[in-house]
Write a structure and sequence with these properties.
Elements lengths: L10 E2 L5 E3 L4 E4 L8 E7 L4 E6 L4 E6 L4 E6 L9 E6 L6 E6 L2 E6 L11 E5 L7 E7 L5 E6 L2 E3 L5 E3 L5 E6 L5 E8 L2 E6 L5 E6 L4 E7 L6 E9 L8 E7 L5 E6 L3 E5 L6 E6 L5 E7 L5 E6 L17 E4 L2 E2 L2 E2 L12
Antiparallel strand pairs: 1-2, 2-3, 3-28, 4-5, 5-6, 6-7, 8-9, 9-10, 10-11, 12-13, 13-16, 14-15, 16-17, 18-19, 19-20, 20-21, 22-23, 23-24, 24-25, 26-27, 27-28, 29-30
Length: about 350
């Protein structure tokens, strides 16, 4: 079940949204409080950060050079629309692939307007309307991977539980728009990352507390030989691993939902290398960005209000600077656009 872990004590300096840790600084990029910000994507071409708000049904674009944050409603005629991910389509200006409700779709947006075009559905992942898309990412070949998520309910103890355990899947969407189930029967599929050699795919099974690794065939997108890289529960870590990024040293950065932090994990040894504390209790995902790709952007949520009462820090998007490894800045990779769909 989802349970709130130990209190994380942070020293707040200069403002209510800036935090100093051991060698790093965490600062909110804006005052906006999103319901369920997720799927951050750094666009190297425009030097902009994109992300979605699942429950809010919006997409956002943040430009660090101007500090402008623009948010647009997806399908504004339908207040119940959810949007889980936004990724640019390669070579197509202002066109994006999104997860909308239980579908994968495309839309156009100039990154400034308050609404997008009406989503054009590519494929329905399920006919069960209680299941919706969760998060997604392009693989090294520019193919789109996306997971689904069932609804939640409260158990007898008042804790949030997935209503359909093991009812979600991780899909690969082909260039023809066909959805292929690659990882079946998952409760909450979340973070994805690929190593620099394009031989390994890392995957987070949030509800099971595990980061998994698969052998990965870059040509076909086939995965095999599943192994556990890291188990947060077995390591007595409060919270649930969620969205994920990989740095240029091959180490994983994993947002810890209900843990108020981001973990740096060595996937080869399975060791926890670093914990970066975030003011929000519900970090959802992370990605590297900035001109030198040395800023870790972290999204957060404010959705489980009975379990983790929201504060002024919940639902913000944060920028973490000053991260170092062996005395050198930690750097990552920009987002990959989708080649075709």
């Amino acid at each position: 079940m989802f349970q709130v872990g130990k209190c994380i004590c942070l020293i707040l300096l200069f403002s209510s949204t800036q935090v100093y840790g051991k060698g790093y600084i965490v600062k909110s990029i804006s005052k906006t409080l999103f319901e369920w910000a997720h799927s951050p994507y750094w666009d190297a071409t425009s030097q902009s950060l994109y992300f979605a708000d699942i429950n809010g049904g919006t997409v956002s674009c943040y430009q660090p050079s101007t500090k402008n944050l623009n948010t647009a409603k997806v399908d504004p005629q339908n207040s119940n629309t959810s949007c889980s991910v936004v990724v640019p389509l390669k070579g197509q200006k202002d066109k994006y692939v999104v997860g909308v409700n239980s579908s994968v779709a495309t839309l156009t947006w100039d990154s400034k307007s308050s609404s997008t075009s009406k989503p054009a559905i590519i494929t329905e992942l399920t006919q069960n309307k209680t299941i919706r898309t969760h998060t997604g990412k392009a693989d090294p070949m520019g193919r789109f991977w996306i997971g689904t998520l069932g609804p939640f309910r409260e158990d007898s103890a008042g804790q949030e539980q997935p209503a359909f355990l093991n009812s979600a899947n991780e899909y690969l969407i082909t260039a023809e728009g066909k959805a292929i189930i690659k990882i079946p029967d998952v409760s909450i599929p979340d973070g994805l990352a690929w190593n620099a050699d394009k031989t390994k795919m890392y995957f987070v099974d949030t509800y099971d507390h595990k980061i998994l690794v698969f052998d990965y065939d870059n040509g076909s997108g086939d995965i095999s030989n599943k192994k556990v890289v890291f188990d947060s529960k077995a390591n007595n870590i409060d919270g649930y691993p969620a969205g994920m990024a990989i740095d240029t040293e091959g180490k994983l950065w994993v947002a810890l939902f209900f843990g108020g932090s981001v973990l740096r994990v060595d996937p080869d040894s399975g060791k926890l290398l670093q914990t970066v504390n975030i003011p929000a209790k519900e970090p959802t995902s992370c990605t590297f960005g900035g001109e030198n790709l040395d800023i870790l952007y972290v999204t957060s949520a404010r959705i489980f209000q009975k379990v983790a009462p929201p504060t002024e820090y919940s639902g913000r998007v944060y920028a973490v600077t000053g991260l170092k490894s062996g005395g050198k800045p930690v750097t990552g990779y920009p987002g990959r656009p989708i080649n075709a769909i």
